[in-house]
Every structure is written in C-alpha cells, then in structure tokens.
Amino acid sequence: MHRHDLPDEQLPRQAHPDPFDFTFIPTVDLDDDQRWSRYDEIGVLTGPEPVPDWVITASGAIETELGILKTGKEADVFLLERATDDAATVLAAKRYREAEHRQFHRDAGYSDARKTRNTRDRRAMAKHTAHGRSVQAGQWAGAEFGTLCELWEAGLPVPYPIQLDGTEILMELITDRDGEVAPRLAQTRPDHDQLRNYWDQLHQAMAVLAGRQQAHGDLSPFNILAAGDRLVIIDVPQVVDIVGNSNGMDFLARDCRNVCNWFATRGLPVDAEEVLAELISYAW
Ligand SMILES: Nc1ncnc2c1ncn2[C@@H]1O[C@H](COP(=O)(O)OP(=O)(O)OP(=O)(O)O)[C@@H](O)[C@H]1O
Ligand SMILES: [Mg+2]
C-alpha cells in the first residue's frame, strides 16, 4: 500500500521532514534571463519525428535569452540558447504578440477555412477581450507550428519546428556558412550562378507546395532566408489552401509576382504569369 492510500488519521505525524520525500529540488540558481526547458512538459507540443540529433531534449536543459533578432509585424523573434552540461544550441524563438500590439493583422482573408470550434473562444475573439486576443495570438502560433511540421515532413526547406508552447514557437535557427544568422534573400546580391541555384530551389519548393494545393500566402524575398547555397522558407502561419479558400488563387498569384519580380530585377528573367500557370496546373 502506498503512503498516499492511507486514510488521513493513519498518516504518521511529521515532526521532521519526510525522509522518503524525493521531491526534486533544483540546486542550480537560474538568472532572470534563464528558464528550464519545457520540451517535456504536458501541454507543450513537440516537432515531428525523427527529431534531428542536434535538438536538445533533456528536461534538465537550461534556456538563456540571447536577445532579440527581429521585431516583426505580428511576432518578435529572439535568440535563445538551450544547453546542458555537454551540449549547447542556439534556437529561434518566435513569440506572437496579442492583436493590439501588432502593426497589422492577417486575421481577415486568410482564415476562411480556419474556424474556431470553442464558442467561448469565438465570442471572446469577436469582442476583442484580453482572453480573445491571447486566443488569437495562440491560434496564429498554433497554425504556424502545425504548418511548419507538415511542410518539414513533406521535405520542404523550412526550419525544423522544435516545440510550441502557447504563443511561442521554438525552431531551428537558420545560419549561413559561417554560422551567422542567415540574411533574408532580399539583403543578398547573389552572382548569376547563385541566383540560378536559388531560383531552382524556390521554384521546386513552390511546385511541391502547389502540388499539395497550398500557397505560402506571404512569400517574398523577406520571408526567404539565404543559408549559404540553400534557401529556407519562413513565416508560414498563413499558408492557404488554394483550392478550398476563396482567396487562395489571389495569394498564389501575389506570391509568384513577389518572388519572380525580385529574381527578374536581379537579372534572371522569370515570368510570373508563366510560373503561375505552371503552379496552377500542379494543383489540379
Ligand atoms: N528560424 C529562423 N532562423 C533565422 N532567422 C529567423 C528565423 N525565423 C525568423 N527569422 C528572422 O526573423 C524575422 C521575422 O520572422 P518572421 O518573418 O517569421 O516573423 P514576422 O513577425 O511575420 O515578421 P514580418 O512581419 O517581418 O514578416 C525574419 O525576417 C528573419 O530575419
Ligand atoms: Mg516575415
């Protein structure tokens, strides 16, 4: 019989601390900018299998804030180190802001097919209460995490999604050849061969997406990172179903124009209309 199964009156009275109480008391003092990894916690969703071997999964890992990488329109991206005694990795932590702190929101138009089932949440969102705003921030984070998982599993070049905890996504930090944070494609000046190589990769990724009847929905040289010779697509919360969403085709057309124009300006003649027609053919 376990101690906890005894009726109250049979429990030994304790004058001294229970010698059998093995409650774990951490002996490490965390600084204000540190926290324990929550990878193992209930309520935290973790990324798809197989988990890459660089991901630190130990529950005793400590996370340290390394500062802000970039403030965006609806989320901020921070650098976060996750470390144990034997290993350390730097991750990207994307933290969604509640709607009132955003500079613009994508909540209309994209969410055609994304309905909220919980009526309390739906009412709160409609009334823009504090609860409603955090539900919405959580929904965008949830949508982005879910999409990253799907796309990663489909072999698309996206950061590996490590975990989702409320409004925060931890993901692979994309770096360049020197281990520096990768620049956005828009900031690069690739030579002709590299431009061709980048276009081939992007074209291929867009074709795979279209074959899945999806469009990124906010694709531009600002949401593509140049990781050395490799391109990585980021910022995917609004990925749209181009067949099921009434605005889907418009998003696909805009994505095509945004990226084709950039490549054309840099000297690689790619025609947005031709690419669009080709992508549409993959979706049906
Ligand atoms: N996994 C990552 N690795 C490296 N850098 C990243 C990563 N994720 C985001 N970033 C950087 O943070 C910026 C903002 O990220 P993201 O585009 O996902 O957020 P956002 O809030 O939608 O931003 P914006 O409003 O600028 O589009 C990116 O442009 C990129 O520079
Ligand atoms: Mg972005």
Explain what you see.
This protein is α+β, with helices and mostly antiparallel strands and 284 residues long. It has 2 domains: 29-172, Phosphorylase Kinase, domain 1; 185-283, Transferase(Phosphotransferase), domain 1, CATH 1.10.510.10. 29% of the residues lie in helices and 19% in strands. The protein has helices spanning 119-127, 130-153, 192-211, 248-265, 272-283; strands spanning 34-36, 45-46, 62-71, 75-83, 88-96, 161-165, 168-172, 214-215, 224-227, 230-233, 240-241. The strands form 3 sheets. Strands 1-3-4-5-7-6-2 form a 7-stranded antiparallel sheet, covered by helices on one side. Strands 8-11 form a two-stranded antiparallel sheet. Strand 4 (75-83) and strand 5 form a beta hairpin. Helix 1 (119-127) crosses helix 2 (130-153) and helix 3 (192-211) runs parallel beside helix 5 (272-283). The longest helix has 24 residues, at 130-153. Residues 1-6 have low confidence and may be disordered. It binds adenosine-5'-triphosphate (ATP) and magnesium ion (MG). Residues 69-70, 72-75, 77, 92, 94, 159, 171-174, 181-182, 184, 222-223, 225, 234-235 line the site of adenosine-5'-triphosphate. Magnesium ion binds next to loops. This is non-specific serine/threonine protein kinase. Residues 37-282 form the RIO kinase domain. It holds the Pfam family RIO1.
